[in-house]
Amino acid sequence: MEIKVLENTKKRLKIEMLENRHTLPHALTKELWNDKDVKISGYRIEHPYNRNPTLVVETDGDAKKALLGAIDRLKKQNKEFSSKIKEIAQ
């Protein structure tokens, strides 16, 4: 996946996720709200023909750390889910 950084300050990060749809930005946005320092977390797709969602994160702390933390938590959840499915499949 390719990303384009639109805004990058300590407290605010705005990125465009090229050739993506709703799945990943929605999961990230939802997980970011679990961080007490996050003040704004959301994404939007300008137009149905535009496949590039723009994700915005604004915090009282470090926006990049908040996003990386959300990614790590989602990876952990995915690993746990995958393990449970593998148990069921055996």
Summed up:
The protein is an alpha+beta fold. The chain has 2 helices and 4 strands, in the order E-E-H-E-E-H.
Structure description:
The chain has helices spanning 23-32, 63-89; strands at 2-8, 12-18, 38-44, 54-59. By secondary structure, the protein is of the alpha+beta class. It has a single domain, classed as RNA polymerase, RBP11-like subunit (Gyrase A, domain 2), CATH 3.30.1360.10. The chain has a four-stranded antiparallel beta sheet with strand order 1-2-4-3. Strand 1 (2-8) and strand 2 (12-18) form a beta hairpin. Helix 1 crosses helix 2 (63-89). The longest helix is centred in the C-terminal third of the chain and has 27 residues, at 63-89. The termini are far apart.
Layout of secondary structure:
Elements: E1 2-8, E2 12-18, H1 23-32, E3 38-44, E4 54-59, H2 63-89
Antiparallel strand pairs: 1-2, 2-4, 3-4
Helix pairs in contact: 1-2
What descriptive keywords fit this protein?
90 residues, Gyrase A, domain 2, 4 strands
What characterizes the major β-sheet? 4 strands, antiparallel
CATH class: Alpha Beta
The CATH topology, please? Gyrase A, domain 2
Q: What is the CATH architecture assignment? A: 2-Layer Sandwich
Number of strands: 4
Order of H and E elements:
EEHEEH
Distance between the termini: 32 Å
Radius of gyration: 15 Å
Helix content: 40-55%
Average pLDDT reading: 94
In quaternary terms, these chains amount to single chain
Low-confidence blocks of residues: none
Number of helices: 2
How many structural domains are formed by the residues?
1
**In CATH, what is the homologous superfamily?**
RNA polymerase, RBP11-like subunit
Strand content: 25-35%
Query: What class do helices, strands and sheet pairing give?
Result: alpha+beta
Looking across the biggest beta sheet, what order are the strands in? 1-2-4-3
